[in-house]
Every structure is written in structure tokens, then in C-alpha cells.
């Protein structure tokens, strides 16, 4: 048994008496505006490291449906005995696995880690945070209280910081809603201070922010290209809100050439910039392996141009015009076989994006206008997702 869990099991009775000296209101006053409440619907709460059940009981009395996780058997038994008449489900589970909780297939409106994070080894924290973030419902809150101070017994106390939590939040597309200053210990221990961090999973009401987050934080095939495509669409939605050329069946279509052009502009700033070695920023761990859309007859003949040279309204002729059309076609081929194919909601048969490609004849001179960009075909996505991207901030 883990030494920390064993300590809580052996000393459950003494710790219970100590914890009963303070109330939920005293311990958790710092995040009061975010306290969950049942009201007109059932608010599902996950209390990880529930101990003697004091928090779980208080939350259940406010109308919440609480799942209390406590791996120390004696501690869990105390909590179970006091909450039999309440909506509290007790589970024996531990971080970073949370295997029992994950089997429930439940998403939570609030996840509380009170006096738990300091017990998690730094090497396990990234995995633990990922598990917790993926258990949140849209607009759900993750509340973590950070204990600063050591123990004089067998319990583990690893260093904690708000900065670490903020970085994990950034990695998993969660918003920081609250971070408190250091506050005194409710039990009056001089050597112990506390901080609270409240994080939330954004929700735009349609579920599309959750979809975007899923694409961002879940690595799978063509993961890098997926992020690049999302960024490309975000730039287009910001700069060209009127780019939609067709709308039907709750889907919108934008010029396929416009998507390819913005993709090229985006990567040009990485590939054709001197990173100190006469080359651009390396995009593959294998330096001998290039990107599929970077070919000699297309991209290779545009290297002398800057990203801003590929602007709407620009006139190209001769070799540059031919190379631009080749680069756009190569990019479209990459998009179709990579991120468009492998970005989907639940399975590959429900893709988020679609491409309808037109065959085009190479011209010796072109103007980068709407007609030129539409000539390559259309890129289609859900109307609600397009609107979601239109409202997202561009950094």
C-alpha cells in the first residue's frame, strides 16, 4: 500500500476528529463564487481524496450528485457511514489512474481536489491532470487546493505551484478562472499555507469549443497537421468573415484555394525563415524527411517570396504563377489525405471537414482573387463550427 494512503488508513479516526474542527465554509471560502449547487438540475461533482466525507456531504446537501473517491479504506468507511441518506457514491480509486471513475463514463460539472495535489509525485502529475481535464463536462470547473508546507509523518509532500497548474491548464485548453494568494491554514498551523486554483472547460453552448479542444489536446494520426489546419481556419475566419460561398444543411463552404493559401503563408514563416543555420525551423525529427506539400516545382520556386507576398489581390505571372498553382494543389492533396481525413467527431466515418476539389488548368498569369481561389474547389465544415472559430480570439 502507498505509504501516504496507509497513513490515512491507520490514522483515520484521529484525522477525522481534527478535520471536524472546521467547516466547509471556512476551508473553501476562497472559491465561494464557484461553489456548485444542484438548483433545477443535478450537478455532478467528483471529490477526489474525499477523506472523511465532510466536503462530499456538504455538497450533497446542496443538491449535488457526488462521487467521492477515497483509497484509504478506514477513511472511506467513516464517510460512507455518515452519508448513507445522501446522494454520495463512494469509490476506491487513486490518481493518476482513476480507472474506476473512468469506467463510469460520467462527465462532471465540478471536480474537487482538496489537499491532494501535494501527494501526487511530479512525474505523475501530467497524466493525472489529463485524466481530470477529460472528465470535465462543458463549462465544468476543476478546483485544486495547493498545500504549501511539509508533514512530520509518513505522508508525502511534494512541492506545488500555481505556475505548474497554469501550464497544465494551457496544455489542455482549460481557462484559469481564479488563483488566490497564500492564505493561512484553517486549523491554525503556522507552517502551512494554502492556495486555490479554479479552472474551467470552455463552452459556447453548441459544443464546438469542446470539439476544437478535443482536436487540440488529443494526439493521434496527423496531429501536427490538424493543429495547423485549425489555425489556418481560425485565421481565415478572423480575416475573411465573408468567405462563405455556400451554406446548406447546416454546413458552410469556403474557397478551397483560400484554405491552401493561408496554409502556405502559415508554414512559410516557419520553413523559409533563417533560424540561424541558413534554414527554416525544422518540422520533422528526421531532418532528411520533408513535408509532403513542399515540392521543388511548387514551394521550391516560391522560397524567395515572403508570406506577406502571397496576399489577396497580388498578381503573379510566368514561373511564379505556375509555381503558386502547383504549391496550392500540393497543399490541397496534403490536406485531403491528412488532417481532413483524420479529424472527426467520434469515428472516421463522421469527419469534421470535407473537400470538393476541381480540376484546374495551369495559367501563365493569375490574380489571387475570389474567382481564382474558388476555382480549386470548396472546403466544407459545420456552420456552428465556423461560427465558433469566428468568435475565437486570434493571437
What does it look like?
There is one protein chain. This protein starts with a helix and ends with a helix. The protein has 395 residues and is an alpha/beta fold. The protein contains 15 helices and 14 strands. It folds into two domains: 3-200, Rossmann fold, CATH 3.40.50.150; 208-391, no CATH class. It has helices at residues 3-10, 12-19, 24-27, 54-61, 73-82, 99-102, 122-133, 162-171, 208-217, 223-239, 256-271, 318-337, 339-342, 370-374, 383-391, and strands spanning 43-48, 64-69, 88-91, 108-113, 136-148, 175-179, 183-184, 193-200, 246-248, 251-255, 315-317, 353-357, 365-367, 377-382. The radius of gyration is 27 Å and the shape is elongated. The mean pLDDT is 87.
Summarize the structure.
The protein is α/β, with parallel strands linked by helices and 395 residues long. The chain has helices spanning 3-10, 12-19, 24-27, 54-61, 73-82, 99-102, 122-133, 162-171, 208-217, 223-239, 256-271, 318-337, 339-342, 370-374, 383-391; strands at residues 43-48, 64-69, 88-91, 108-113, 136-148, 175-179, 183-184, 193-200, 246-248, 251-255, 315-317, 353-357, 365-367, 377-382.
Amino acid at each position: 500500500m502507498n505509504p501516504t494512503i496507509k497513513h490515512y488508513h491507520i490514522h483515520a479516526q484521529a484525522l477525522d476528529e481534527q478535520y471536524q474542527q472546521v467547516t466547509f465554509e471556512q476551508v473553501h471560502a476562497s472559491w465561494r463564487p464557484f461553489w456548485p449547487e444542484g438548483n433545477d438540475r443535478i450537478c455532478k461533482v467528483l471529490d477526489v481524496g474525499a477523506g472523511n466525507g465532510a466536503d462530499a456531504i456538504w455538497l450533497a446537501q446542496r443538491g449535488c450528485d457526488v462521487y467521492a473517491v477515497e483509497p484509504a479504506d478506514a477513511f472511506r468507511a467513516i464517510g460512507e457511514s455518515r452519508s448513507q441518506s445522501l446522494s454520495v457514491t463512494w469509490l476506491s480509486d487513486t490518481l493518476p489512474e482513476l480507472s474506476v471513475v473512468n469506467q463510469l463514463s460520467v462527465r462532471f460539472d465540478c471536480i474537487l481536489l482538496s489537499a491532494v495535489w501535494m501527494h501526487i509525485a511530479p512525474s505523475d502529475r501530467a497524466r493525472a491532470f489529463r485524466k481530470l481535464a477529460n472528465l470535465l463536462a462543458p463549462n465544468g470547473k476543476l478546483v485544486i487546493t495547493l498545500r504549501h508546507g511539509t508533514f512530520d509523518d509518513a505522508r508525502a509532500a511534494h512541492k506545488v505551484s500555481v505556475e505548474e497548474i497554469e501550464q497544465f491548464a494551457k496544455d489542455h485548453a482549460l481557462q484559469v478562472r481564479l488563483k488566490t494568494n497564500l492564505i493561512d491554514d484553517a486549523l491554525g498551523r503556522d507552517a502551512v499555507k494554502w492556495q486555490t486554483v479554479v479552472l474551467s472547460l470552455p463552452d459556447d453552448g453548441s459544443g464546438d469549443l469542446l470539439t476544437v479542444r478535443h482536436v487540440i489536446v488529443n494526439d493521434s494520426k496527423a496531429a501536427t497537421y490538424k493543429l495547423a489546419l485549425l489555425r489556418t481556419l481560425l485565421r481565415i475566419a478572423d480575416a475573411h468573415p465573408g468567405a462563405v460561398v455556400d451554406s446548406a444543411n447546416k454546413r458552410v463552404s469556403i474557397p478551397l484555394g483560400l484554405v491552401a493559401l493561408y496554409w502556405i503563408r502559415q508554414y512559410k514563416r516557419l520553413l523559409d525563415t533563417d533560424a540561424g543555420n541558413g534554414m527554416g525551423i525544422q518540422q520533422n525529427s528526421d531532418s532528411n524527411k520533408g513535408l509532403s506539400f513542399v515540392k521543388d516545382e511548387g514551394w521550391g520556386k516560391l522560397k524567395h517570396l515572403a508570406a506577406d507576398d502571397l496576399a489577396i489581390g497580388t498578381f503573379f505571372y510566368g514561373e511564379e504563377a505556375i509555381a503558386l498553382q502547383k504549391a496550392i494543389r500540393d497543399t490541397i492533396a496534403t490536406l485531403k489525405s491528412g488532417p481532413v481525413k483524420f479529424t472527426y467527431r467520434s469515428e472516421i466515418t463522421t469527419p469534421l471537414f470535407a473537400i470538393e476539389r476541381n480540376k484546374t488548368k495551369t495559367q501563365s498569369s493569375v490574380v489571387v482573387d475570389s474567382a481564382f481561389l474558388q476555382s480549386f474547389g470548396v472546403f466544407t465544415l459545420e456552420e456552428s463550427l465556423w461560427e465558433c472559430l469566428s468568435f475565437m480570439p486570434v493571437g
